[in-house]
Amino acid sequence: MLQRITDALLSVVYPSQCQICSSIVDRSSDGAACGDCWDKTRIFSGSEVLCDKCGAFLRETKSSAIVSCHQCEDQHYDRARAIGVYHYALSASVIDLKRSPHIPSKIRELLFATLERSSFTDSTLVVPVPLSAKRSVERGFNQAGVIANILAKETNIPFDELSLVRKIHTPMHRVAMDKKARDLTVRNAFEVKRPKLIAGHDILLVDDVFTSGATVSYCAKVLKKNGARKVNVLTLARAV
Ligand SMILES: [Zn+2]
Ligand SMILES: [Zn+2]
Fold this sequence. Notes:
The protein is an alpha/beta fold. The protein has two domains: about 1-40, no CATH class; about 75-240, Rossmann fold. The chain is built from nine helices and ten strands. The chain has helices at about 1-15, 35-40, 90-100, 105-120, 135-140, 145-155, 180-185, 195-200, 215-225, and strands spanning about 15, 25, 50, 55-60, 80-85, 125-130, 165, 190, 200-210, 230-240. The strands form four sheets. It has a four-stranded parallel β-sheet. Bound molecules: zinc ion (ZN) (2 copies). One zinc ion binds near residues 56 and 68.
């Protein structure tokens, strides 16, 4: 109730612009995008066919068979799921989260719906994909940590943002790199500082966006090398 009143007041005092089409965002709970841009965004509902492992969108109508995209066999996590496709409102939300450590309530609701459907609620530790120390200082917060913290609080699963670290500072222009170049920059970027806190856990690894899967795959590899039993991945959005 209080949230709704705050939303209404904020939208009157500070009407914000949709980051995609520039029209006014009526509900501050929608965050960086307007209702129309949200409508254009593909949000996974459970009725579509996703790759069972990496969560890639394959086709519209669901069948009961377990399907694979055949591209993710070598990746080291167990399963990965996202709220939806990295375009329209979800890309605007991911970009917005890099600027300010706030998650609008629309994203929260979608995130918990995705978590419930994925059965990742059995996880025993929530771990965000880390930033390098240099990037953490530049930005002042880790956007994956903001998402992971909310998930941990809501589910009462313990949160650990200190054990997995990024030891190599990777350049910003990752989107412009091809798959191979991106893969090389993250291959040896991660290490586990406190293996005892990781060993034996079913880990929910959290990031803002799943692009090629290389980042979460190498995080999962190092977590498993240090004794994690399982690593499942949850992101806000997923590239197609
Ligand atoms: Zn819009
Ligand atoms: Zn796949």
